[in-house]
Design brief:
Strands 8-5-12 form a 3-stranded antiparallel β-sheet, with no helix packed on it. Strands 9-10-11 form a 3-stranded antiparallel β-sheet, with no helix packed on it. Helix 4 (73-85) packs across helix 6. It folds into 2 domains: 2-117, no CATH class; 125-191, SH3 type barrels. It is an alpha+beta fold and 193 residues long. Helix content is 31%, strand content 22%. The protein has helices at 2-11, 45-52, 64-67, 73-85, 90-98, 103-117; strands at residues 24-28, 40-44, 125-126, 132-133, 139-141, 145-147, 152-154, 159-160, 164-165, 172-177, 180-185, 189-191. A hairpin with a 2-residue loop joins strand 10 and strand 11 (180-185). The chain has 6 helices and 12 strands.
Amino acid sequence: MAHINALEKRSGSNCELCKAHGNLEIYKIEPNNNGRAEQAIFICDKCLSQIDSKKPDPHHWHCLSSAMWSEVPAVQVMAWRLLSRLENEAWAQDLLEQLYLDDETLTWAKAGLNEDKDHIDEIKHLDANGAILASGDSVTLIKDLNVKGAGFTAKRGTAVRNISLVLDNEKQIEGRINGQQIVILVEFVKKSA
């Protein structure tokens, strides 16, 4: 009970990753967790399900831009691991470059990274020519696309900049055309140089 009380006090009864209230659980940061509060974080059920997900929702993890500055090493470790898992997201890689961990904390973070990566199926998004797409890339449409519900047709040759990958579907990306965020099938785009 003292363990949970220490985590509640440290976190202010908020999720230490996204600051949500309620439904908080202890998450032990492996490896070598000896059960001390310093080696665990207090998180909400949504963060827990996202950590355990093979295909986490990158939009949920924008909260790491605040959590990564925590003074709690266990929170720093979890933020580093999650940002590392989001390697296809340009914003996550920018945050990872800003995140400084002392040598001991970085060693702890890296020790569990392989375990975390085992949760992820490596999905590759390939354009119509077989080129690998990454988040932040620019693509060009190779076919006119009728955008359902938006009332316009995206013309062949339209450039789509700063795409996002649909992590659980290698056949889809997201991009902004005519000011609207839409899902685009990779078979209808080619990577821009």
